[in-house]
Write a structure and sequence with these properties.
- With 465 residues, the protein is of the alpha/beta class.
- The protein has 2 domains: 152 residues; 210 residues, Rossmann fold (3-Layer(aba) Sandwich), CATH 3.40.50.
- Helix content is 45%, strand content 12%.
- It contains 15 helices and 11 strands.
- The strands form 3 sheets. The protein has a 7-stranded mixed sheet with strand order 2-1-3-4-11-10-9. A two-stranded antiparallel sheet has the order 5-8.
- β9 and β10 form a beta hairpin.
- α5 runs antiparallel to α8 and α7 runs antiparallel to α8.
- The radius of gyration is 34 Å and the shape is elongated.
């Protein structure tokens, strides 16, 4: 057995101090499970009620302001963009108001605001005609969470750097910064989601014959200031368009789809070629206008001006359809999708092969072919479906869906089922007053406010007892 060679001068191993005073100190510094689950104090309950009440107030304010902004739109939309573009300013107020709370309490306040704002606005949009508002709301939640994280970091940094006036100064600076449009561009991109520019699922060939200045503009191909119509540009995203100037066996050979929009006067042999092509299986969409009001800078009588009257009378008579003037004025219709007509005419179908779908819309099935007729050609004007300014045809700005509706009609004629390149707009129902939808959306917030007040009063009574 080896002898113990430990030095005799070694200090004994330190032992924990188990004196009563140190044990009691450790017991008081580490909260027990009972202490963590204790009832909140009156001050904590008041703070919790204030957080819930402030979040509910901001959610109500966002709903009311968003409804007011959406009512200024023409036409009305059943989309959440108006609400979500108000949200960044309200998030600054929320981050400033909750700056002195612990992180867990701030997170609860932020989550409470989102859980209150999202469902109430979804109720409003669903009542207003949006069948599925949740994808837009989920994108709004994701964008809000990211923005809240940035705002919270900035506010807390300002609070640590200047405890007195740092937070108000940071809040004012962020509000002023949000007034600069590029600052909120990433937030807007996340909120809008997938917009225009999705790849087309194939681009079928489309013949186009028209006297309207949509291909090159009114100035022609050699005018540097002339531009194609935005409706033509949108249709080019969906189809491989081949403009033609004459109708004969050569130009129609091998084609299956034709858009004939307020054409020039057609010779008898052209009308006969078109009729034969349709009866052999051609698919034709006709836009013919008995009262064209297309604006033009060219003098009256200039051959470059589009014909003010539809010149397809002999062909329509042969098919058993009569084109007559309408009541006048602009007409907005849902087809589905929003379509705006200007002084549309009337189509009266008398032949058994033709029928009137709406006063301005008819169809004929001739032989193996199919024809759709619309008594308005002004609908291709840019001012009837876009707004002035750069990007006026974008999804979140346009006022109608004209090229999308035309593309849908052409696809149905050809028997194709495709998703449009440009994202659709959810337009509001016209038979639902906005005030009624707003009252329905505010009911959950009112119920939550009453429940919060009742819970706070009950907690206060129990604490007092």
């Amino acid at each position: 057995m080896r002898p113990d060679r430990r030095p005799t001068s070694a200090m004994p191993a330190s032992r924990p101090n188990l004196s009563p005073s140190s044990a009691s100190l450790r017991a008081t510094s580490t909260p027990t499970r009972q202490e963590r689950l204790r009832r909140p104090t009156r001050a904590e309950a008041a703070r919790l009620g204030a957080i819930i009440g402030f979040a509910a107030s901001l959610a109500s304010l966002e709903l009311i302001v968003g409804v007011g902004l959406s009512r200024d739109q023409s036409p009305l939309r059943a989309e959440a963009l108006a609400f979500l573009m108000v949200r960044p300013w309200l998030l600054v107020l929320l981050a400033v108001a909750a700056c002195r709370l612990p992180l867990a309490w701030r997170s609860a306040a932020y989550a409470g605001f989102l859980l209150l704002a999202g469902p109430t606005e979804s109720l409003y949009l669903a009542r207003f005609g949006n069948p599925d508002p949740w994808p837009e709301m989920l994108r709004g939640w994701a964008a809000t969470a990211l923005l809240l994280g940035v705002l919270d970091i900035l506010v807390q940094a300002a609070r640590r750097r200047a405890p007195g006036r740092g937070v108000p100064a940071a809040g004012i600076a962020m509000l002023m910064l949000f007034a600069v449009p590029p600052v909120l561009a990433p937030f807007r991109t996340l909120v809008v989601g997938p917009g225009d520019g999705r790849p087309a699922a194939g681009r079928p060939e489309l013949l186009l014959m028209t006297a309207l200045p949509i291909v090159w503009g009114e100035g022609g191909a050699f005018d540097p200031k002339s531009r194609p119509a935005l409706a033509y540009t949108a249709l080019k995203e969906e189809f491989t368009i081949r403009p033609i100037d004459t109708l004969d066996a050569r130009t129609l050979s091998g084609a299956g789809l034709l858009l004939l929009a307020q054409p020039r006067w057609l010779a008898p042999h052209e009308l006969a070629a078109l009729d034969g092509w349709v009866r052999r299986g051609g698919r034709l969409l006709v836009l013919t206008d008995p009262q064209l009001v297309w604006p033009s800078d060219l003098p009256i009588g200039d051959v470059r001006r589009p014909p003010p009257l539809g010149l397809l009378g002999p062909l329509l008579d042969h098919w058993g359809v009569t084109l007559a003037p309408g009541a006048g004025g602009r007409v907005a219709v849902d087809a589905p999708g929003r379509l705006v007509l200007d002084h549309p005419g009337r189509l009266i179908a008398a032949a058994p092969a033709c029928r009137t779908i709406r006063p301005y819309w008819a169809e004929c099935r001739l032989g193996a072919g199919h024809v759709q007729l619309i008594a308005d050609a002004d609908l291709l004007r840019d001012d009837l479906w876009t707004v002035p300014g750069e990007g006026g045809d974008a999804r979140h700005r346009r006022s109608a869906d004209t090229p999308l509706v035309i593309a849908d009609l052409l696809d149905r004629l050809a028997g194709n089922e495709r998703r449009r390149v440009r994202a659709p707009v959810v337009w509001a129902r016209r038979d639902v007053p906005p005030t009624r939808a707003l009252i329905l959306a505010l009911m959950p917030l009112l119920a939550l406010g009453i429940a919060s007040l009742a819970a706070f009063a009950l907690l206060h009574r129990r604490r007092a007892a």
